[in-house]
Structures are given as structure tokens and as C-alpha cells.
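User: Hey, quick favor. My workstation is busy. Could you predict this chain's structure for me?
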Amino acid sequence: MANNTYSQIDANKRRTWLLIAIFGAFLITIAWFFDVYMGYSYIIVVIAIILSIVMGITSYYKGDAVALRSTHAVKIKKEDNPYVYRMVENLAITAGVPTPKVYVIKTDALNAFATGRDPKHASIAVTSGIVKTLTNEELEGVIAHEMSHVRNYDIRVMTLVVILVGTIALISNWFIQLEFFGIGGRRRSNNSGDGQLGLILMIVGLVLIILSPIIAKLIQLSISRKREYLADASGALLTRYPKGLADALEKIGQSTTALPHVNSATAHLFISNPFKGKKINAWTSTHPPIAERIKRLKEMDGQANA
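Assistant: No problem, here it is.
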């Protein structure tokens, strides 16, 4: 199992960073077009980056508290729920990270999430429903998945992505407003012999800037899905029992109870889409299809038993 799991982990890490590199190249292309073809100063792009960094840093340091408060998660000590607390504690030791703070969300919904900017400031929350419904091995698989998000610094990675998305959204929004109010820059002249090519590039660039927030969001969602696959594989490596998480995901997928007090801003944190009963397109989902996740975990389990 180990070789197959490590190869999945490496592949998911490579794909994540490839997508982030594409993200960066996309931003640079927009900035270049903004200056060269539309005649706006690079200062607008710089301001957009600075504002996005400020918002990203705020989210980085305060996002965990907001997520926990918004879901009505209650912090527990070992004596409050020794079963859950010790499971988190044991998996933290196995993962080689400090024990995260443990929270319980009182609801019959089957879900869990991890948050925190690094392993020293991490929290793991599970619903009371998931604790009651899953077997020991299944719950261990779920918590190992969340522990992997902590160990893989996924909050840090997604904060970088949020900064990139925010920058692109700001540039696009400002561009549309500047053009609407007629405060456009001095566009590059098309009388230099390459007028037709310049015109084509300008049209392509305009469409790109207008559609850039949608493109950026799709890349962000793709990165989020890759991190879920990575946490699945890393979690299976922690427990050495992929079937536990696969069986847990099967039960979670069959549950029809929606998680209360959740919004789109925190939905990506959960092990499974918290909005039950709502059809979500694969392109716009923060999570990969549960069936595909189960399939990959069963393949890992098959390799372990081969």
C-alpha cells in the first residue's frame, strides 16, 4: 500500500503546485495586458495585490475562529469525551504534530473539518452525528483525513490561493469600473504595422479580464479538490487502513442531513459537501465526487492486501 499511497500523495502535491503556477502566470498575463495594451499603470495591479494580501493575512490569522464560531462548534477537554479526544491525540502523535484543539458540533449531520494556520494553532471539529454513526475504524479514518490537512499546511496553501483569486477579482472589477466611467488608460496604437494582430490581442485580453474572476474561481476549486484527494491518501497512510475512510465516506455520502449554520465561505473546510440535497456541478464543487474518492481508497486497500 505504501508505494501506491506515496505516489498518490506526490502526484497530488505536484498537481496542486502546477495549478498555483498556472494561477501566477495567469495573473502576470493580466497585469501585462493591463499595462501594455490598455495603458493602465502597474500601480493598480500592485494595489490589488497589497489589498488581497491584507485580506488574506486577516483570513489566515482569524479564519479559524470565524469558522468555529459560525458552525457553533464547542471546544471539549479529554474528560468531556475521552473517546474522541484520545483518538485525535493518538493520531497527532502518529502524524508527528501537536494535538489540535478538539471541537464537537451538536448535529445529526455526518461531517468534520480542520482549521488553523499551522499545526501549532490547529483545531479539528467533528459532528456529534458522525461520532454516533461511524465505527471506531471509520471515525479514525475521518480524523486522520482532517489531521492530514493540518500536517499538509492546507490552510496556508488555500490562503495563498485566496490572495491570488482576490487580486484577479479586484483587477477585473476595477477595470470594468474604469472603462464604464470612461477613465481608461491610453491604449496601444494599432498603426505600427501589427494593427490586426494588436486588435485581436486586445479583444482576447478584454474577454480574459472580464472572465478572469470565473476562471480564477474554477482554478481555486480545482486546487481545493486536489487537496481533498491528498488528505485522503495521507490519512490512509496514517491509519494504514484505507477501508476505514472509504466506509466512512460511503456512510457520509448516504446521509441526507444537512449541516446547519454553514455558509459557502466555510464549506470547503469540511470532509464532505455540507449542503445536502443541493445538486452541485462537478466544476463548481469544492470537493471531488465521493464515489471517486471511495474508488481510489479501495484501490489503495486492494494494493495493501495484494
